[in-house]
Amino acid sequence: MATSRTISANEIEIFALEQGTGPLVVLCHGWPELSYSWRHQIPALAAAGFHVVAPDMRGFGRTSAPADVSAYSIFDLVGDMVALVGALGEQKAMIVGHDWGAPVAWHAALFRPDIFKAVAGLSVPPPIRGRRRPLETFAENGVRNFYWQYFQTPGVAEAEFERDVPLTMHALLGRGFSDPGAAMFVGERGYLGDARADQPLPPWLNEVDLAFFIAAYKSSGFRGGLNWYRNIDRNWELTAPWQGAQILQPSLFIAGGQDAVITGPLGGRRVSEMEKVVPNLRRKLIIEGAGHWIQQERADAVNAALIEFLRENARNA
User: Catalytic residues, which ones?
Assistant: First the structure.
């Protein structure tokens, strides 16, 4: 059974769930999620012979949430994972990330191949650094209502999401990026649009799970996680030295076939061309009929793929 503890690392306090012994595997969640999002993976990976650690990421849940927006750059987020590995008394690890946690995992492998010996990304393909700042590019192409843009001004999205946290979490997790019109672009009614509390939950999310997320976000608010988005252009600037760099470690990619993150023109191209960035890609698993919250929606398939991949690469970790 998983235990929890708070670990001091990289000048913040990181809450983490932990289970098992063996090679270290770090699980990085995305937005708007928590370490709890890995509730199906933690016991399965531990039973397969791994030391599994799933933190609440910086700004989320019971982990510290610095007030300064600039404290959420990709360097800070990867720095947390590097420091976490060290605080656990380890020198090597394998790292897995979903949603925003995937860029953290990919960049951890890119920045510190001496520590992170294998990497798996769920739902978000490996990074391809474009020629221009991402938000700048949207604006130049006439896009004004993409959700990344809506999240930029501090206080705006927070006010919408915190007005009715149960409704917000019901809509964000229950609908998610399987509905591209609702999730990717923001209309006059805000990000949540016409979300209703009486909409049925998807089969993979029960009332107990939803209540856990609601309680956590009532306590923490949404600002910490939204600050990740407020560093998107800054991350582009900071990663200039890695323009064109490859991630050479063994890698795995898993996504849902109905996830709008990978079905749009940009996401689809990145999925089809990911071998250019991760030439040692061992498997590209697209699970048909699944949406964005893939490790919760299709836990058995994700667990099986992760265990196979991690076992193949455990000798290096």
Answer: 99, 292
- Nearest CA to 115 out of 101, 94, 98, 96 is that of 94
Residue 268: the pLDDT is: 81
What is the rounded (10 degree) CA torsion for 83, 80, 250, 128? Answer: -140
Long-range (24+ apart) CB contacts under 8 A made by 215-221 are 216/34, 216/36, 216/61, 216/62, 217/32, 217/161, 217/165, 217/168, 217/169, 218/165, 220/60, 220/61, 220/62, 220/65, 221/158, 221/162
Distance CA 256, CA 213 (A): 22
Question: Could you give the CA distance from residue 299 to residue 44 in angstroms, rounded to a whole number?
Answer: 10
Amino acid in the structure at residue 120? A
Reported pTM:
0.96
Q: Tell whether the model's pLDDT for residue 179 goes beyond 60.
A: no
Q: Please, are residues 42 and 203 in contact by the beta-carbon 8 Å criterion? A: no
Both tokens assigned to 57: 């990421």
Which residue ranges make up each domain of the chain? 3-316
Task: Extract the tokens encoding 37.
Answer: 């999002």
Burial class from Cβ neighbours inside 10 Å (0-12, 13-18, 19+) for residue 88 reads: middle
As its CATH architecture, domain 3-316 has: 3-Layer(aba) Sandwich (3.40)
Instruction: Give the whole-angstrom CA distance, residue 63 versus residue 16.
Output: 8
Nearest alpha carbon to residue 256 among 247, 266, 246, 267: 267
Q: How confident is the model at residue 180 (pLDDT cuts 50, 70, 90)?
A: very low
